[in-house]
Amino acid sequence: MYMMTPHNEQSQKKRKPKRKQTSKRTSSRLPWKLMLSVLLVVVLMLTAWIQERSISGSQADDAAIQDFELLLDWSNELIDGGTMTGQWSFRWDATLLNGSMEGLAKELFITPKGELLHRNIRENGNAMDGQWQLPDSVIKLVRTDQDKIAEKVTVMLQLDASELEKAAELKKSVRDLHRLLQEKDQNVQMNMKVFGQAKHNQVLSDLKSLAVAQTLEEYGDHGTTSVTYFSNRIKQFRWLSNGKMVNIQASLHKSSIDGDYTLTIGVPLISGEFGEIVEEQPPIN
Q1: Cα 154 to Cα 130: distance, rounded to the nearest angstrom
Q2: How crowded is the C-beta side of 56, counted as CA atoms within 13 Å?
């Protein structure tokens, strides 16, 4: 018959505290496991949020670039000599962190080989302009507003496509510039304009057909006919003060000197400096 000896009793007493210590260790690990689980969920949610922002940014990029490529196609049909005889203007309106304009300028006024381009500093540093990396191109930066946190910057690019060898060069340069600005502000707004000699005096009707557009406004003044359209083919749009949503503006002007027609097409708008009218000068005899 087995008898409990004093030695055995002491052994049993020693074992009991060990069980309690093990239980305490297990319970102390539970909060850490819970914290790790919560941290993992937070990381996964953050990753999904970053991916969503990246996807929305690429979609905005696609919309602007698709509109640009459509305008390239239309100008080829409507401008005498095609796309590469047109004068192109682009405008981006971005909101950046306060003090970011100088850093952006360093990225813009540079050649593909990394050589710095000369820039003119104006208006106490609130504006700068100079030659861009493409032949016969000018780029301009203007700080339009500023507070302690952010600043609004407008970037304008003007170039003569006839100075380029291929349309692919124009496409790539504009696409790369747009994506650079979109990295700074994924909600950057892009306007584009092409100006050139019209093939004939009915190009506005041709544009409406190409865009499958609805005419919203039309008026004429001193040899100029201006039309505002809305087209489902264009991805971007703007709201006018009258509550109308528009995405194409076009202007056909008949010269009072030689009777030739010039065409201007803006997507989504002809705005800002794009709207300036250059006074006609008579030819030098």
Answers
A1: 15
A2: 10
